[in-house]
Write a structure and sequence with these properties.
Layout lengths: L7 H14 L4 H17 L11 H14 L4 H20 L23 H7 L10 H16 L3 H5 L6 E2 L4 E4 L8 E4 L2 H14 L18 H14 L8 H13 L4 H8 L5 H9 L1 H5 L2 H4 L1 H17 L1
Antiparallel strand pairs: 1-2, 2-3
Helix pairs in contact: 2-4, 6-8, 6-10, 11-12
Length: about 300
């Protein structure tokens, strides 16, 4: 008779193997590994899987609230990751099935660059005086504001992914692992052609490379762009801020939410809806000035007042 009981720790190792066989991204697996470190602080990793219940999860949530200095959105992330792991156990028949609801959290205002910031960041450097890194960072700002991609996507773009014949760029490394084809704007197309004349390189080389032509890491790019912003007297920094700014500008310019969803590579409209909700205050600005009904009534009232006089 086999009296072996799988521990939570053993179960998580099995879950990781499952993730690998499902071909989930390294970032996704790494995320679960990071979360489980916090989980194991409050749930004994050596406890038997079959002893995990709804009470175990609820106690974990309370322990996090009482012992960790974290935001509600972080706790939500922890619980969603734990839920994914435990639902795997349930599907395998290791524990009884029960629903797990992640704690709610207040939506935070999405940080974006102001128009004044963009004027500074998108101003072309003096090509006779600037070095390659400054020029490259300027081009990265141009690319982010024209394509709206994530940082991981950007650092994996190769020269061969630019298709000037069809006026598109192929984004092969994305969060949901679905390649995207994004049109090149006229401005970006011209800028990229000039950039390639200076950058040179082969088809297999990375488009935005280090000073030595190598692929740039996310951390190194973050630090480099932070320095670029500081030198241009832009106090705010953050690579993902460009993506938020792209989305905001698209919405304020009257762009389609469905098209934005496709460009950003979201699987549904939930995140795009969040963008719209976050920027409603900006949408209200000048609304009356350009609103057809308001303008019609304004002119009608003006004509009536003139007749009375």
């Amino acid at each position: 008779m086999n009296d072996f009981k799988m521990t939570f720790k053993d179960g998580f190792e099995e879950f990781k193997v499952y993730c690998i066989t499902k071909n989930l991204s390294k970032d996704t697996i790494k995320h679960h590994e990071n979360v489980i470190k916090t989980v194991f602080k409050f749930i004994n990793p050596n406890m038997s899987i079959e002893d995990i219940t709804r009470k175990t999860v609820n106690k974990f949530i309370l322990d996090c609230k009482e012992n960790l200095t974290i935001k509600d959105v972080t706790l939500n992330t922890y619980v969603r990751s734990l839920r994914t792991i435990l639902y795997y156990f349930m599907n395998m028949g290791y524990i009884e099935k029960f629903n797990i609801n992640a704690p709610k959290f207040d939506r935070q205002i999405i940080p974006t660059y102001s128009d004044e910031d963009l004027k500074k960041l998108l101003k072309k450097p003096n090509m006779k005086k600037c070095d390659f890194i400054e020029y490259r960072n300027y081009m990265i700002c141009q690319f982010f504001m024209s394509v709206g991609c994530r940082t991981r996507t950007l650092i994996n773009i190769k020269i061969k992914d630019l298709d000037f014949d069809n006026n598109v760029v192929y984004l092969n490394v994305t969060k949901n692992r679905k390649p995207l084809i994004i049109p090149l704007s006229n401005t970006l197309r011209k800028e990229l052609k000039e950039y390639l004349r200076i950058r040179k390189g082969k088809e297999e080389d990375y488009l935005f490379c280090s000073m030595y032509g190598e692929q740039i890491t996310r951390t190194r790019l973050f630090n480099s762009m932070q320095d670029y912003n500081r030198k241009r007297e832009v106090n705010q920094s953050g690579l993902h801020r460009f993506r938020h700014t792209f989305a905001k500008k698209w919405i304020l310019n009257g762009g389609s939410a469905l098209k934005l969803k496709e460009i950003l590579g979201h699987s549904n409209l939930e995140m795009v809806t969040n963008y719209v909700n976050m920027f409603t205050e900006d949408l209200q600005k000048d609304f009356d000035e350009f609103n057809p009904l308001e303008q019609f009534n304004k002119h009608t009232n003006m004509n009536l007042n003139m007749k009375r006089k």
